[in-house]
Write a structure and sequence with these properties.
Helix content of chain A: over 70%
Structural class of chain B: mainly alpha
Number of helices of chain A: 9
Shape of chain B: globular
CATH class of chain A: Mainly Alpha
CATH architecture of chain A: Orthogonal Bundle
Strand content of chain B: under 5%
Mean pLDDT of chain A: 89
CATH architecture of chain B: Orthogonal Bundle
Number of strands of chain A: 0
Distance between the termini of chain B: 44 Å
Helix content of chain B: over 70%
Order of helices and strands of chain B: HHHHHHHHH
Oligomer: heterodimer
CATH superfamily of chain A: MetI-like
CATH class of chain B: Mainly Alpha
Number of domains of chain B: 1
């Protein structure tokens, strides 16, 4: 009886996972890209770049994601003049929000690269961007992997918040099934189990990766 | 491009002004209540994870992994929609009849249980950072396990964990916004609710975001002073 509810709606609910993953992947890619730029800005020696990126990062880190999603949901139609739909608003909110967290990870990663590396690269005649691209970022990236893995789990869980503006991702679909079937216990335990499997599996895989890589990282 | 009539008076005009202030008060009460419970549970779980008993360690680890790897929103829904139906019939009816702020209670419980899993990790790293010599010295003076933790280890670990605890409190404060999904009228929920009467959601959400910003800034400033006083001499300091 109990699993009947889940089996009957399994296809519908798991269909929402596609959207969940789509949101997560776009938010991760966009957030990482924008976050890297912001993180480099936080290390810039040019004062106004440092100030602007710091304000951005501190501001977004003090906000609840759900509020940011609403804010863009209200703001975007006003700026563009027409509603762009929930998906576009959610993506914008996710990218801008997660980038603030990625920026701090990137900053930490870059700061962990010994200063001598930069001096050596500069001395061999590379430009600022070449130094970052070929010397600093590749080394920083290795040090950032654990933090990035943790943050990507958080990001994956955060996609469930797209629920509030009516996107039919996984949790919304579970919620819809629940409002029809009224089997909250089974359905939400099922949702929890699905999220748990992905998040915990991903963390375990990363822990193993860390262990195998070990030693030679620093 | 910007054809939007800003009307900031929704923030103080009757009755919306009062509603907004109510929302802020709910956010503060909710996050403080959850935080208090979370610290107590988190402390207990962290000590469990350091215990000599294998079962205690396993249970502690299971708690942390389960509650950390399930989105808070799922947990909120579970506590609000599913848990009451698991209770005996009489208790369920009593809940629905007598507890008028059931949503806020469910929200507080889910937030507390979730935050506890994060606080437990903070305390555990604090406990691990206490030098081994402290444990040995405490036990060798004849203190029992409980007394050693109570008088030596925990005060030490607490001071080490303080900066991270501040971060976790702010996370808890921000996470309280998620309870709006089950109808708790805290700051974010209220901003959204006022929008449904006035269509001025942009102003109310902007105001709400400044409330979060202001609170975070105030908490960080206050905690920086406290952290400076509570710092353990000789430990590596965070660079200013």
């Amino acid at each position: 009886m109990a699993d009947h509810v889940i089996l009957k709606n399994l296809q519908f609910m798991l269909g929402g996972l596609a959207l969940t993953f789509e949101l997560a992947v776009i938010a991760l890619a966009g957030g990482l890209l924008w976050g890297t730029i912001l993180g480099m800005g936080r290390l810039s020696s040019i004062r106004w770049i440092y100030l602007a990126t710091s304000i951005y990062v501190h501001f977004f880190r003090s906000q609840p994601l759900i509020l940011v999603i609403f804010w863009f949901y209200f703001l975007v139609p006003i700026l563009v003049g027409k509603p762009l739909g929930a998906f576009a608003s959610a993506i914008i909110a996710f990218v801008l929000f997660e980038a603030a967290y990625f920026a701090e990870i990137v900053r930490g990663g870059v700061q962990s690269v010994p200063g001598g590396q930069v001096l050596a690269a500069r001395a061999s005649g590379l430009s600022y961007f070449q130094v970052q691209r070929h010397v600093v970022l590749p080394q920083a990236l290795r040090n950032m992997v654990p933090a990035l893995a943790t943050q990507s789990v958080v990001l994956f869980q955060d996609t469930s918040l797209a629920y509030v503006i009516g996107l039919r991702e996984f949790l919304r679909r579970v919620n819809l099934v629940d409002s029809r079937e009224v089997r909250s216990v089974e359905l939400y335990l099922f949702a929890a189990a699905v999220y748990f499997i992905f998040c915990f599996g991903w963390s375990l895989a990363n822990r193993r990766l860390e262990r195998n890589r070990g030693g030679n990282s620093c | 491009m910007l054809n939007y009539d800003f009307d900031w008076s929704v923030l103080w005009r009757e009755p919306y002004g009062r509603m907004f202030v109510d929302g802020i008060r709910t956010t503060v009460c909710l996050s403080l209540a959850s935080w208090t419970i979370a610290v107590l549970i988190g402390l207990f779980i962290a000590v469990c994870r350091m215990a000599p008993s294998r079962t205690a360690r396993l249970l502690g680890t299971a708690y942390v992994e389960i509650f950390r790897n399930v989105p808070l929103l799922v947990q909120i829904f579970f506590w609000y929609f599913a848990v009451p139906s698991l209770l005996p019939r009489d208790m369920e009816l009593w809940l629905y009849r007598r507890v008028t702020n059931l949503a806020a209670c469910a929200g507080a419980v889910s937030l507390a249980v979730y935050t506890a899993s994060r606080v437990a990790e903070v305390f555990r790293s604090g406990l691990l950072a206490v030098p081994q010599g402290q444990y040995r010295a405490a036990f060798s003076t004849g203190l029992s396990r409980a007394a050693a933790y109570r008088h030596v280890i925990l005060p030490y670990a607490f001071r080490i964990s303080l900066p991270l605890l501040t971060t976790e409190f702010l996370t808890c404060f921000k996470n309280s916004a998620l309870t709006m999904t089950i109808g708790v009228m805290e700051a974010t929920g209220m901003a959204n609710y006022i929008d449904s009467f006035t269509f001025h959601g942009l102003e109310t959400t902007t105001a709400a975001s400044f409330v979060y910003l202001g609170t975070s800034a105030a908490v960080i400033l206050a905690m920086t002073c406290i952290e400076k006083k509570m710092r353990i001499p000789g430990m590596i300091r965070r660079k200013a």
